[in-house]
Known about the structure:
The chain is of the alpha/beta class. Helices cover 34% and strands 23% of the residues. It has helices at residues 15-32, 122-138, 152-156, 161-164, 185-200, 212-221, 237-246, 258-265, 292-300, 304-313, 320-335; strands at 12-13, 38-42, 48-52, 55-58, 63-68, 82-90, 95-99, 102-103, 105-106, 142-149, 166-167, 169-170, 178-179, 205-209, 230-232, 251-257, 340-346, 352-357. The longest helix has 18 residues, at 15-32.
Amino acid sequence: MEKKDKKNLKTGFSTGTAATAAAVAAAELLFNGAAPEKAEVILPKGRRMAINVEESSLDGTGAAAVVKKIAGDDPDVTNKARIMAAVSLSPGKGIAITGGPGVGRLTKPGLALPPGEWAINPVPRSMIRENLAPFLERAREGLAVVVSIEKGEILAGKTLNPRLGILGGLSVLGTTGLVRPFSNKAYIDTIDAAMNVGRALGLEEVVLATGGRSEDFGRMARPDLPEEAFVQIADFFKDGLNHAVGHGFKTIGLSVFFGKAVKQAAGIPYTHAHKSDMDLSGLPGILPKLPDSLRREISRAPTALAALELLKKNGRLDAVPPVARKVLKSARAFAGLGPRLWVRIFDFDGTILAFEEA
């Protein structure tokens, strides 16, 4: 498969922009008798975007329209999700925005909105209100907008929403209205949101896992901690630590496999395979003294897993704790002197190969 040049990657638009476009199209149908083929939306910084309208309908209670969310070249679970907005007249003044099927509700504190609210974030709410303001002026009463997402509850299962306490569906998100391809910001924002929830619940310890399996093993090792204490940081070693410190956690744990631990031990801030080389030639330098023949084999190992297998084969798993201590040294450089730190390095069967704290 041909690899795309990052400069040519397509920018998409957020679920908040899709919901706004659907609301504009529905309002056009309600007030003008016809929905546009493309709904023009004003984005947060004043830029305008014309978005295709998939379908629309009018009945005795109001109008509705559907927009397909397009994420561009970003690997987004909501790409091509059908987002619907229903607009109707309502008593009172202003624009009331609620969620419908497929949109989640908040059940935990620490997020952008209080528990009980629909998971339609503040910027999308502002976008909807700004774009519907001209229609509100024509109405003699208020407007009610209901946002729904087809199959939203199913799609939400592929996100961190359940962990964040957002139940029943997806979140309607967006700060700029656009989705930048392969942007790290969205994931880091999710890390931040998960930590917000933990702190709002009064937790003082957070465990940073690099993925689902390392989190599962971390939770088995620390059954005393609630699920909100575990945050998946993926490859964001430095950012995860920085955010944990910024949120004021007094204890920060790391739950990792040997491969990630080797990169963390090397002080690599972002440990993605495509962004940081797995150069094992320096690995023996952070291990205790080994026979020269084994050191050479480890240096030539194609992967960290292969290096670990060599250590097992030669009965030298005592070499793993020094790697953990080096991880702590790197973590301390990113986290500063404040929090207590610990690290557990796991084998792929869940065996704890090393536990160190500082």
